[in-house]
Predict the 3D structure of the following.
Amino acid sequence: MAPARNPLRTCAVGTVSAALVAGAVVGLAPVAQAAPAVRFVDIPGDGGTVLKANVVTPAGTGSHPLLVLPTSWGFPQAEYLAQARKLADSGYVVLSYNVRGFWQSGGEIEVAGAPDLADASKVIDWALANTPADSDRIGMAGVSYGAGISLLAAAHDKRIRAVAALSGWADLIGSIYSGRTQHVQAAALLDGAGAITGRRGPELRQIFDRFYASDLSQEQNLIDWGERRSAATYLDRLNASKPAVMLANAWSDSIFPANQYASFYEKLAGPKRLQLRPGDHATPELTGLFGLPNDVWKDTGRWFDHYLRGVDNGVDREQPVQLESRTGAGYEGYPDWKSVAATDRKIALAGSTTIHADVDSGADGGTVLLSGLLDQVTKLPPLASIPLLPRRWAAVWQSERYAAPQRVRGTARLHTTLTPTAESGTFVAYLYDVGPLGIGKLVTHAPLTWHGRTPGQPFGVDLDLFSTAYDVPAGHRLALVADTVDPLYIEHNPSGARLTFSSPENDPSYVSVPLREQ
């Protein structure tokens, strides 16, 4: 990859975030209350690696369905105890284990590699041999890292009949390297948290080093490494065994964007459900980890109750795609992902606009973890004053004022013609909801990087912005902004580079905004 610009600034922000998250892990993790049914055990994983685990067994005799919960990245094995007790009260044997490489479990961090998948099967073997678990009724669930491992394990172990993957990934490269752009704050957060709470092996340290260094000679190796750790790679196996898969994520997830889950969901052949809510990475599930009422965990319990316990709770008859708008209240049901948007409205990006690189215009995607959480709690996304954005460093196009609310649902798409002055470069596209005073609230955004282009030669760009659900009030506009620097990402613009966005008569530029029916 070409030499990166300003990696230290963006990495510093991510590392600080990582330290904050690690502090939360230590200080805020749920503490187990005394309960006779909870056992803390050691389980031999792949190659004999010791996995620290806890088991919560329901009262009563006979066999029970089994739920296996791998921990999140950097979290201790007590993470799920509050939910485990609730699930055990519903009749499940619940086994949560610390994934290898973290806390007291042995081994090194494998990032959902082959040893992690073998561990999941070993944990199931142990549970069937040492608890009253039913071998025909096995499920896996987890948040973030635990979600990714659960999906991958279900693709490799046909005994797993139901999965709830919460705030996870199905496409690892499509998450942290979308648009061929390093999501450096997300990577730095994971890297920092792994360094504090786990043991990174030589391979993982090398992966992060190459990621930060933008070594193009190693790009394909990085992609191959990520694809081996992505459930989307093993879609044929999942569609052959058809476990019941529930996917839940947040619209503003700054580590695993909603797009990659939605794309994966559409390709699943078995029973499935997709839920998208306001929030950032793992924030919709957070209160449930403390035993507080939580929609995500409630629906997780309903999912397993139906597909593992045979409870006729209607979850199979509900619309399988459930969305909550970032600006509204209540859920909207759809029969599939493509039905989320009833129509597309195009905003023309007319004229020819040239911007200079290397300076942050003030249009930004926010801060990893924090911006999406603020949007979830206060409905206040990242802001920018659209009239004051410096046109030397930002290209701006605006729609007319809308007479009626515009209910954005799904994936906005940018189509334009770009002429760079250098062979490598990066730009970030932002879609804003602009009020009467010109203050723009971020609706969605996405980065794009290119290499090996001929300077001065135009080329076509088609960029999917991150999926969202957002209601633009009547009297507001939508604005499309493009600039070259965002602290969330590593940018690849050489000093003095310029980008020209144009709209040829035979191939006009536009942003296509997906809208639901009024």
Notes: The longest strand covers residues 439-450. Residues 1-36 have pLDDT under 50 and may be disordered. The first helix runs from residue 7 to 28. DSSP finds twelve helices and 23 strands in the chain.
